[in-house]
Amino acid sequence: MHEFRVYLADEQATEALGGCLAAQLTDGLVVFLSGDLGAGKTCLVRGLLQALGYQTAVKSPTYTLVEDYSIAGHDIYHFDLYRLLDPEELDLIGIRDYFNGRTCCFIEWPERGQGRLPQQDLEIRITVQGEGREAFITSHTDQGKRVLESLL
Questions:
Q1: Alpha-carbon span 142 to 99, nearest angstrom
Q2: Mean pLDDT of 95-122
Q3: What would the pLDDT profile of 19-58 be if each residue is shown by its tens digit?
Q4: What is the pLDDT of residues 141-151, one digit of tens each?
Q5: What is the C-alpha to C-alpha distance for residues 25 and 135, in angstroms, rounded to an integer?
Q6: What is the mean pLDDT of residues 80-88?
Q7: How far is CA 20 from the centre of its chain?
Q8: Residue 45: which of 80, 72, 87, 4 has the closest Cα?
Q9: If DSSP codes are grouped into helix, strand and coil, which group holds residue 112?
Q10: Topology at the third CATH level for domain 3-129
């Protein structure tokens, strides 16, 4: 397991980190995004999608649970499990079908899906630090390690 820490001075810096991640995107990547409400998890995904060429507004899937994007040769799923009451609810939407080795999945509030989610390749934990944020990026698999090393 390897960890990288980066200070994010503002929203643009958070989006830029998402853009850096977009350049290293590989099929099958599973990324857990953790942090308090408003920490910048969706902002990071927005930066990733915009770096891939997505030009429409990126909304948090808080109410829809998942938003899907097909862009730049990638099928990307952005989950927000904040409103999930029980991890078993994920079985009702066929959660396992999303993790097929060909898709890239970004999951906010992954702890709420405990026992129903696959092993994450990367975990990005965002914390508020004064006026900015700090992102801790941890690899949990060989694929995650390759992506993390490419970011350095």
A1: 17
A2: 94
A3: 999 999 999 999 999 999 889 999 999 999 999 999 887 8
A4: 999 999 998 88
A5: 18
A6: 90
A7: 13
A8: 80
A9: helix
A10: Rossmann fold (3.40.50)
Residue 93 has pLDDT above 90, yes or no: no
H or E, element range at 143: helix 142-151
Nearest 5°: the CA angle 102, 108, 110 is 85
- The continuous run of DSSP H or E covering 137 comes out as strand 132-139
**Do 81 and 110 contact (CB within 8 A), yes or no?**
yes
Q: Quote the CA–CA distance of 72 and 110 in Å, as a whole number.
A: 26
- Taking the C-alpha atoms of residue 135 and residue 40, their distance in angstroms, rounded to an integer, is 10
Answer whether 0.90 is exceeded by the pTM: yes
- 16 and 63 Cβ atoms separated by less than 8 Å: no
How do the domains of the chain map onto residue ranges? 3-129
Among 128, 125, 122, CA closest to 148: 122
State the Cα–Cα distance between residues 9 and 62, nearest whole angstrom: 25
- Side-chain-facing half-sphere of 98: CA atoms under 13 Å: 25
